[in-house]
Amino acid sequence: MSAREKGTVKWFNNDKGFGFIQREQGADVFVHFRAIMTKGDGYRTLVEGQRVEFTVTQGQKGPQAENVTVIE
């Protein structure tokens, strides 16, 4: 299992369901709404500037965030 990383949401488009996270170290990483972990069946979204924790996997078009959780 990959190590968890921390970063900040650079932007997230609710209509399209994706955005990018600025990693603490390394290049920005793509995030899809399906990768956002919620409590229950809540609406999966992120807000610009929000701090998050995630793992990075290799997607079809490059690195992407998975198992994204908001740091409270």
UniProtKB/TrEMBL annotation:
Where is this protein primarily located? cytoplasm
Q: Which UniProt keywords apply?
A: Cytoplasm, DNA-binding
Against SUPFAM superfamilies, the record matches this protein to:
Nucleic acid-binding proteins
Q: Quote the cellular component terms of the Gene Ontology held in the record.
A: cytosol
Subcellular location, in the record's words? Cytoplasm
* Domain CSD span(s) in chain numbering: 4-70
Is S-adenosyl-L-methionine one of the keywords? no
Q: Which InterPro entries match?
A: Cold_shock_CspA, Cold_shock_domain, CSD, CSD_CS, CSP_DNA-bd, NA-bd_OB-fold
Which Gene Ontology molecular function entries are recorded, alphabetically?
DNA binding
Q: Which Gene3D superfamilies match?
A: 6.20.370.130, Nucleic acid-binding proteins
Q: Which SMART domains match?
A: CSP
**What PANTHER family would the database entry show?**
COLD SHOCK DOMAIN CONTAINING PROTEINS
Q: What is this protein called?
A: Putative cold-shock DNA-binding protein
The organism encoding this protein is Aquicella lusitana
